[in-house]
Amino acid sequence: MSATAQPEVVTRFAPSPTGFLHIGNARTGLFSWLYARHHGGRALLRIEDTDAARSTKEAIDVILDGLKWLGVDWDGHEYYQSQFQARHAEVANEMVELGHAYRCYMTAEQLAAGREKAQAEKRPYRVESPWRDGAPAGDGAFVVRLKAPREGETVIDDLVQGRVTVRNAELDDMVLLRSDGTPTYMLAVVVDDHDMGVTHVIRGDDHLNNAFRQLAIVRAMGWPEPVYAHVPLIHGYDGAKLSKRHGALGVDAYRDELGILPEALFNYLLRLGWGHGDDEVISKEQAIEWFDLAQVGKSPSRFDLKKLENLNGHYIREADDGRLAGLTAPRVGKLIGRDLSTAEIELLVRAMPELKPRAKNLNELAENSTFLFQARPLDFDEKAAQLLAGDSPRLLARAWSALNALDEWTALATEAAVRSTAESAGAKLGQVAQPLRAALTGRATSPGIFDVLVLLGREESLARIADRMDGAE
RNA sequence: GGCCCCAUCGUCUAGCGGUCCAGGACGUCGCCCUUUCACGGCGAAAACACGGGUUCGAUUCCCGUUGGGGUCACCA
Q1: How far: A105 CA to B24 C1' (Å)?
Q2: Where would a tag sit more exposed on chain A, N or C end, judged by fewer CB atoms within 10 A?
Q3: What is the distance between the alpha carbons of residues A318 and A314, in angstroms, rounded to a whole number?
Q4: How confident is the model at residue A226 (pLDDT cuts 50, 70, 90)?
């Protein structure tokens, strides 16, 4: 808390539980969180769970877990919109008493007829309720409608969008309270944001139009007006709206299915639609220090999985070997059909320095490490099989002898042995090394062959070579 | 369709009237390193949507066109 009169910044992220944390929502949440952290304010979380059918415990946990994994925490407990319904109704009724809202008895049929007529006349439809101006109360069911201003215009100085002006004639008398007495989303957000003390409403720009109508409620109640910031949505790589088909996966899918590290997704999402000079790799601490809404672009940006994976590769290379092994082990287990033993996980940790520069996600890391754990005789892929044909068994036999004669089993020693084998056989190093690689890993590509030899150990290495050499029993 | 917003390399972006025949990153393509694949290093191709203004001077300001997006519920 500063001693100056700067009011505290309070932001909120308000996702509705749809069963997954959409990547675009996650970015909006990230921005909202960063803005609060940057200004030393509070970042709040409110679950918009008024749709009881969708708002299951599981759906809510997906969001909570996703944010936590991303490293986006929030202050205090999370709020649940469904708990404030009585309060919403109270505000709606107060607005009726104040003359800023009214009970409307129009039927669904009347509304539909009005809409149809407007469409036929090719003019925009606006609710024209006789009860707006005090028609005597009807006797059927009613909704409470906002008595929206009709003259003049409403201006919002949006932190991202700039100054946006809309003529009040465009605004509608939207429903605040449904005929069953429950609040609509429009009412609920405004009331909750006010009650929670939210000063900065940072959300997707699909809400920009709503802001004008919501502001009407704020003003009717005489509440302090929040600062708005509507950040653009994320699009798919082809420019179309992000659908499941091209990347609109939940945050959990990036973690579980694509094997993305949280710091990579954090960094990628941050750089999507926001920039700080030429900086590409940005830590959380730097992000908090540098982030500002003013630099957020106004146009929607496209999601590029290639760039995310490049960043992910960077963070994998930087990550601690033990942590990576822990994340990779279960994936390896799935690939080889059994869990890794403690000793095998330790081997994975030791192999990590050689493994991690070759992977851009955890799945690749797992795939590239399976050779360490496969039981003899190995399976060979097509390219490996080719490498083991022709003269290779003979060269492998010579390599086997040279290696078998070694006193110490180090990368240096094995390299010397293999090099002299090649030399004495009149072959290039590659002519020996490649078959060796195939025999040891079952593949044509792998970490450096001498590192592989050391990781596998003397006994296993010699046995694997023997399996493929001339004179193999 | 009405209303609102947007527009720099394929993608993410830097640029906030002259420093820009436009910089960085991913991707692509070469070369180097090298036992493979990566990593790393070096280099190349690649953009100011179009048309009018304003100005001594526009990528930068204004208008229009085109293109894209959002939104128009008793959903959130």
Answers
A1: 61
A2: C
A3: 6
A4: very high
Q: A408 vs A110, which has greater pLDDT?
A: A408
The H-assigned helical ranges of A251-380 are: 251-256, 262-271, 284-290, 305-318, 321-336, 342-355, 362-369
Task: State which nucleotides on strand B lie below 7 Å from a protein beta carbon.
Answer: 1-8, 10-15, 23-27, 35-40, 68-76
Q: SS3 for A163? A: strand
For chain A, the 3-state helix, strand and coil shares in percent, each to the nearest 5, are 50, 10, 35
Active-site residues of A: which are they?
Answer: 244
Q: Is the dihedral of CA A454, A456, A459, A465 positive or negative?
A: negative
CA–CA dist A289, A285 (Å, integer)? 6
CA A410 to C1' B32 (Å) is: 29
Return the SS3 of A125. coil
pTM: 0.94
DSSP secondary structure string, A216-233? Answer: HHHHHHTPPPPEEEEEPP
Within 8 A by CB and 6+ apart from A466, the residues are: A400, A472, A473
Q: Which residues pair with A202 in a beta bridge?
A: A229
Say yes or no: Cβ of A271 under 7 A from any atom of strand B: yes
Nucleotide nearest to A51 (CA to C1'): B76
Token couple for A137: 């109360």
DSSP A294: G
Q: How far is the CA of A473 from the C1' of B65 (A)?
A: 80
Indicate the average pLDDT of chain A. 92
